[in-house]
Specification:
Blueprint: E1 2-7, E2 26-28, E3 30-31, E4 34-35, E5 39-40, E6 51-57, E7 65-75, E8 84-85
Amino acid sequence: MFWLSLHSGDSFSGENELTNIEYSRIPVSLSRGRTTRSITSNIALNDWLTITHIGLWSAETGGALLKSMPFPEPLYINMGDRFYLEAGALFYDSERRE
């Protein structure tokens, strides 16, 4: 099990992670390096900061940042929205470190 984090800026060491009261890291299951299920966040109770990066962690809180990557284009999560990625949209190769 891994945990996906959402960031409002470059997340090389985990900084800029969202801190909204309803935000929490999202559990992610991988098979052959790809997500096996869709990834969905909690519903935003307020507008969130613009998401520009995502991270993959070893734990729900704290833990090690395993991978950081920019989001293809800025994503705006407004009140009532959710963050969503389809199954298979996220790839992580644990043998390759960038």
